[in-house]
Structures
1.
Amino acid sequence: MRLEPVANPSLARQLGFPALALLATVVVASLLALLAGAEPFGTLGLILTGAVGSKFAALETLNRATPLIFTGLAVAVAFRARLWNIGAEAQLYAGAIAAVLLGTGVLGTPWVLPVSALVAMLAGALVLLGPVQLKTRLGVDEVVTTLLLNFIMLLLVSYLLEGPMKDPAGMGWPKSAALLREARLPRLVEGLRLHWGFALALIAAVVVWLIQSRSTLGFEMRAVGQNIQAARFAGMPVNAVLVKTALLSGGLAALAGWSEVAGLKGHLSLDLSPGFGYTGIIVAMLALLHPLGVVVSALFVAGVFVGSDSMSRAAGVPTYIADMLLATALLFMVLAILLTRFRMVRG
Amino acid sequence: MSALFEILFSTSFLAAMVRIASPLIFATMGELICERAGVLNLGIEGIMVIGAFAGWMAVYQGLPLWGGVGVAMVAGMLFGLLHATLTVPFGLSQHVVGLGVTLLASSTASFAYRLILPEVTSPPRIEPFQPYGVPILSDIPLIGQALFAQTPLTYAAFAVALLTGWVLFYTPLGLAIRAAGENPAAVEAQGLSVTGLRMGAVIVGSGLMAVGGAFLTLSAFSSFFFEMVNGRGWICVALVVFGAWRPGKAMLGALLFAGFDALQIRLQQTPLGAALPYQVFLMVPYVLSILALTLMSRRAEVPAALMMPYNKGER
C-alpha cells in the first residue's frame, strides 16, 4: 500500500471525504450514547438543543467560543509556520495574570483595559519566546518544552493564588481579588450575558487573516512552514520569522485568558481554563489552520461542549463524550483532508 | 549539607528513587522503540492514562493483578494501532495525530470511568502489588531493601529496559527497526517492510507506555484519579532525548530524574521546605526535563528519519 497524489481532485472528492469524516463522528457519537444506555438520536438532539436551542444556550455557546477563538488562532498562526506551540494553556494563564495584576488597582486610569490587554499579550508572547529561543538557537524541540511549561505555569498560578495574589476576602479559597469595574469588559448588549471579548475575538480573526494573506510577514510564515530549508536558502531570516510568529501566537493565546478574566469571571482561579489551550489545537486543525475558519470551528467545538453538558444532565451520558467526539472528529478530519489529495494504491 | 547527605544515603530515599523510576522506565522504553523506528509518539500521555485506568478497572472487576497488566497493555496497543495506522501508511502529521490520540485515550478513560461508576465520589481501591524481597540480595545493607524489596512490576520495568537494549542492538529485528528509523529506503531494498516494522514498533511501544500507566494504579497508588499521569508522558519524551535514544542511558536518565523527584519530596520537610512555597518543589520535574532537553540538544544522535513518513517508491 502506498499513497499516490490525485492529479485534479474532483469537487465530489474534496467535499465527500470531509463529509464522511463528520458522518463517522456522528456514528461514533451514536455508538457511545448506545453504550451509555441512551437513545442515539435523542442524545444527539439533546446536544444540539443544549448548544443552540434557546437564547440562553446560544449565548452560552458564544461565551464558550470566545477563548477558543483566541487559542485556536494562536495555534493556527504557529502551526502554519510549523512552530509546534502546544503551550497555549500556559500563555493563556500568563494573560490572565496580567489582567489581574493591572485590573485590581495598580492602574486606576481609564486606559486600564487597553493597557492590560497589551501587557497580557506581551506576557503570553514572553512565555513562548523561551521555547522558541531554545529551538532556534540550540535546536531544542519546542513540542515538549511548551507542553512542560503548561505544568510549570499552572503551579506558578497556584502559588500566586495562595500567596501574593490571594484575595484577602476570599474565605480561604485560592482565588484572586475581583477586578475593578473599569478593568472589566462591558457587555456587548446590555442585559445579555455576552461580553466584548467575543467581538474582540472576531476582530482578532480578521486581523490575523489580513496579516497572513496581505503582509510580508504572512508570506514569510507560510514559506517557513512549507519548507524551512528552501526559505533559508532563499535568504529569508527564518529565525526572526519564527520569533515574530511566536510573539503573535503567544499574544493571541494570552488574550484568551485576559478576556476570560476581564469579560467573564472577573477574577483568576485555578479552574479558569478547562483546557482551552489544548482544545485550541482541535479548533485550529478542524479549521485547516485558516483564521476565519477558526471562528466557525470554535463555535462548533463550543457548541459540542455546552450541548454535551446540558445533554449529560438530561440523558445521563457522561459529559466526557464531548472530548471523545472532538478527538475523533480531529483524527477523522486530518485523514479525510489527506484523502482529498491522495489515494491509496496497492504495491 | 549533612542533612542532604543523610537523605541521599538512606534506604527510603533509594527505594523511592527506584519506585518512582519504574513507570518512567516502561513508558520511556515504549517511546524509545517508536522513535528508533522513526515515529514520534505523542500519544504517550493519553496511552499512560488509559493504561492506568484499564489495568485498575480490570483488577477491580476481579481479574488478577497480572491480568490487569495484560489488559492495560492490550488497551495501549489498540491506541498504538490507531496511531500507527494514521502516521505510518497514511503518513499524517505525527504531532497532530499524537496529540489527537492523547486526547482520545484520556477522554475514553474518563468516559468509561463515569459510565461504569456513575455515582461514586472517590474511586474504589484495589489490592495492589506487594513488595517481594529477593532472598539473600534484599539483606544487603542500604541497597538491599532499596533495590531488591520492590514490587514485581518494578523488577519487570528493569527487565524490559534490558530486553529493549538487547533486542534493539543485538538482534536482526532490532537492526531492522533501527534502520527503519535511520534509512527506510535501505530497509525496503533488503526486502523488509518499513510499514510493518514501524507499525509493529509503535504498537509494542504503546503497550509498554500503557503498562507504565498501569504501574501507577496497580503498584503505586492502588486507585485511579483523572490527573494522575500529570505530564509523566511528556517527561518520558524528554528522557528519550536525554538518553540519546539508547535504552541503557535512558534508564539511567529515568533513575537520575526519579532521584531528583524523590529528593524534592524529602526537601519539602526540611527548613528549606518551610522557606519556599511547595509549588517550587513540584516544578522541579518539569524544569529538570526542560534542562535535560537543553543540555542534550547539541548532540546529534537523533534517528535520521524520525518524523519522516516513508512512502514506497518516493525519493
2.
Amino acid sequence: MKVDVKEYIASGILEAYALGHVTDHERTEVEAVAAEYPEIRKELDAIQDSLNAYAKEHSIAPTAGTKEKVLQAISEYESDKRPVRRLNSMEDEERSDPRNKAVWSLVASVLLIISLTGNLYTFKRMNNAESYVHELEHKVHRKDSTINATAAKTDQMEKDLAILKDPMYKMVELKGQAKDTTAKAMVCFCPGSKLVYFAAEKMPEPPKGMQYQLWAIVDGKPVDEGMITMGEGLHKMKDLSTATAFAVTLEKEGGSDVPHGDMIVMGNI
Amino acid sequence: MSAKVFSEEELVTALKKGDQEAMAMLYDNYSAALLGVIFRVVDNREAAEDILQEVFIKVWKNISSYDRSKGKLFTWLINIARNAAIDSMRVKDYAIKSKIQSIDNSVRSINRQYNVSTQVDHIGLKTLVDKLKPEYKVLVDKLYFEGYTQEEAAEELGIPLGTVKTRIRAAINHLREVMK
C-alpha cells in the first residue's frame, strides 16, 4: 500500500486506531501500513505510549488478595483440562473391550423388549378403556332419551287427566256403528271455552290413503271438526260452541267438506 | 512496578508457553493500571476488582491471539480491560449511572481546574492529568476510558464531529509534549 507518510499521520487515523475507534477494515489497513512504514509504526507507538502513560496515571493498586485469586483461578483452569482427558480415556478402554460391548448390547436389547412389551400392554389397556368409555356414553345417551320421552308422555298424560277431571267438560262416548260395533272413541267438549278434544279408544288403523274425520252435528247438519291423528291420549280438535252429537267417518286423506264415507263411531251429547 | 526481570517480549513468549510465573509478573506490572482503567468505567471498587480478575483470566486464555505487530502489550491489555468493563456496564444496564458519572467527572474536572492550588498532594509534582487542558482531558476520558464513539462524544459535549477529530489529535500531541 502506497501512502504519503506525513499525510497519513496528519489524518488522525492513528489516534482513532489507538483509541479503538476504527472499523475492522480500517484496523487491518492501519496495521498493514504500520508494518510497511517504520515511521508510521514509530508514530503509532508514540501515540499508544502517551495514552498508556495517561492510563497509568489513573492506577489503583488492587487489594492484596486479588493476585492470589487470579493465579488460583488460572491454576484451576489449567488442572480442569486434565480430568476431562482422563474420563475420555476410561471410556475408550471400555469401548475397546468386545466382551463389554456384547454385554451392553444384550442389556440394551432386553431393556428394549421389556419396554416394547410394556408399551403394547399399555396401548391395549388404553384402547379397551376408550371403547368402554364410548359404550358408557351411548348407554347414558339412550337413558337420557328414554327419560325425555317418558317425561313428555307424563306431561301429556297429566294435561289429559286435568281435562278428564274438569267438570266443565262434557264427556261424549262415541260407539261403534254398523261397520265395527266394537269400535269406541270419546270426545271431551267444553262449550264455555269452545275446546274440543278427541280420543280414539278403540279404532282400527285407517287404510292407506284414507283418514278419519270428526264431525259435530249442529242443527242436524254435520260441521267439520278436523282430521283425526291416531295415537294415545287426547287430541285437540277445532273449536266449537254448540253441538248435539259427534260422529267419525272414514274419508279420503285430507278430509271432505261433507261426510261421504262410512260412519265408524257416533255419540249424542 | 518498574522492577521488571523480563522484557515485554520475553514476558509474552513465556505466557504463550503457559508459564504461570510469567502471569504473576504480568499481574505485578499491569494490574494497578488496568484496575484504574476499569474503575474509570464502572466507578465501583468492588465490581472493578471482580472485572480485573476476569480480565487476567481472559488474558491467560487468549494470549495466543496477541500479536506484537498489532500494537504494544499494554495497549492490548487496556483494550481487554476497557471492553470487559464496558460490557459489564451494558449487561447491568448502568446507562443512567454512567450519565451521572460523566456529570461527576465534569464536576471533578472543574474542581480540579479551579482548585489546583489547594491540592497539596500535587504541588511540585504535577501529573500528566493536571498538565492536560480540561477540554482535552474530558475528551480523552470519554473516548479512551468510557468507550464513547467520536459521534457520541460530539453529541455529549455539544461540539461538531470535525472539532472532536482535530481536538483529540491535539490532545494526544499535547500528552506527548508533556510526557517529555
